[in-house]
Amino acid sequence: MKDSKAAHQGAPFVAVENLTKQFGRFAALRGVSATFDGGRLHAILGDNGAGKTTLLRTLAGLIQPTRGTVTVLGSTDIRAVCDQLGYMAHPSLLYDEMSGMENLRYFARLYGIQDDERCAKAISAVKLDPELTRPVGQYSQGMRQRMSLARALIHDPKILLLDEPFSNVDIGSAREMVRLLESMRAAGKTIFVVTHQASLLDGAADEFVWMQAGQIVGRTRQLQPVEVR
Predict the structure, then answer these.
(1) How confident is the model at residue 90 (pLDDT cuts 50, 70, 90)?
(2) Are 158 and 83 a contacting pair, CB within 8 Å?
(3) pLDDT at 178 > cutoff 60
(4) Which string of b and e fits 59-89 if b means at least 16 CB within 10 Å?
(5) E-assigned strands of 46-144?
(6) 16 pLDDT exceeds 80?
(7) Could you give phi then psi for residue 85, rounded to 5 degrees?
């Protein structure tokens, strides 16, 4: 652990340089360069097609950039630090026929975690009941999103990458999720949230990162429109 800390001591927690991603002739990211501090909640905003999800998936190591570099925790090899990343996709990607506990137990095993108590604590952390036996397919959308968040947290990552966590969630559940994210940030986690519901993070996010046409066009501390020249 000391070597890992030394590797990124004094360096940005996350950095991208000249990041470009092309899908055929379409450039989803166009020369993005940015650094992101640790222990903060970064809200990534922009219209559909702005490059938000592509940036998030690139940070997670799920897609490879066409050009440019990604540095996470001092490493340009995302596979070397993947156990420190927790990724929550836009779809919940849960097994509908299984209970929440069964789902989390399965995903925990992928990280070599055999501790059911740890699974139960992760479920409780997102305000769900680990003893609820009904299938996830019968959960409300808010419950599914919180269970998906528990899955991203099960291995206690340093960095959370969340893609539209408030999608199709009622306002009460969404606000509860924001409070959870604030508590996780207070505990030292670094959080990236891609969302179209920026107002939910007003007062919670440390910064708002605005994207347009595959580029970062502005970064603000408060939720305010960015003028693009």
Answers:
(1) confident
(2) no
(3) yes
(4) bbbebebeebebbbbbbeebeebbebbbbbb
(5) 67-72, 85-88
(6) yes
(7) -115, 135
Among candidate residues 182, 188, 179, 206, the one with its CA nearest the CA of residue 39:
188
Q: What is the pLDDT of residues 46-70, one digit of tens each?
A: 999 999 999 999 999 999 999 999 9
Which candidate, 193, 163, 177, 192, places its Cα nearest to that of 89?
Answer: 163
pLDDT of the residue at 1: 38
Asked whether 171 and 152 are in contact (CB, 8 A), the reply is no
Instruction: Provide the pLDDT for residue 223.
Output: 84
Beta strands in the chain (DSSP E): 14-23, 26-36, 41-45, 67-72, 85-88, 159-163, 190-194, 207-212, 215-220
Rounded-to-10 torsion of CA 22, 26, 28, 30: 70
pTM given for the model:
0.90
Residues 6+ apart with CB under 8 A from 154: 104, 107, 108, 111, 113, 118, 119, 122
Residue 95: strand pairing partners? none
- b (16+ CB within 10 A) / e for 192-210: bbbbebbebbeebbbebbb
Q: What is the Cα–Cα distance from 96 to 46, expressed in whole angstroms?
A: 31
On the question of pLDDT at 11 being above 80, the answer is no
**pLDDT value of residue 228:** 55
Contact 29, 65 (CB under 8 A): yes
